[in-house]
Amino acid sequence: MTRRREISVLIVGLQFVLAIAAVVNVTTVAFDLYSKAYSVVIACRYRYQIFLWNVLVAALWLAGFLSLMSRSCFELVQGGHAVAPQSGTSWSVRLRDWVKRWPGNEFSVCVQHEERRFYWNPENQWYFWFSQALTLGTVAHIFYGTAILSGYQFIAPSDALGVVARYVASAWVSRLILRSELAGLSARTTIQCGDGEEGRCMRSSASRERG
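User: That's the sequence. What structure does it adopt?
Assistant: Structure tokens below.
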């Protein structure tokens, strides 16, 4: 194992440890609120809503993922030529290609991934609905969390500050991991904006199929 590979493994391992720690931190905070805190707005039989509020973040992530996928696509590039088109093909082909490449990409830093070409296509109806769901869902999630957390009664302000600090810490760690991954992707990705009705990505894939 080369030194560069060793550093990559250490970085990925650190990211996994931090991500797991952030999830465990949020889970234990929710459990403490569920079992030890008293809410003036939530009846005992509805105290599970603190867990529901945490889990609903996954729905927001899914809406963001689908909105991105509905308007964009990736192509792997070698020597200036696309070798694995990610658009213009069926979902089953794209899924098999993703599964085949997932282990190597997941356990290596993004800056060491294959070179990619990112296509940003014109808006379509799927992007509109998914992006609207993401926007409205984010606002609703904020209000829902505010309504839940504001009803809890704490013995001292320090207790409330501790809960907020732990949530902020998990968010900060997740943000740090995301920023590092995006920096690596930016170094290996070329962005091209689509134009026209179908977008450049769809036309380039179709031309390769004709060729």
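The two ends are 41 Å apart (CA to CA).
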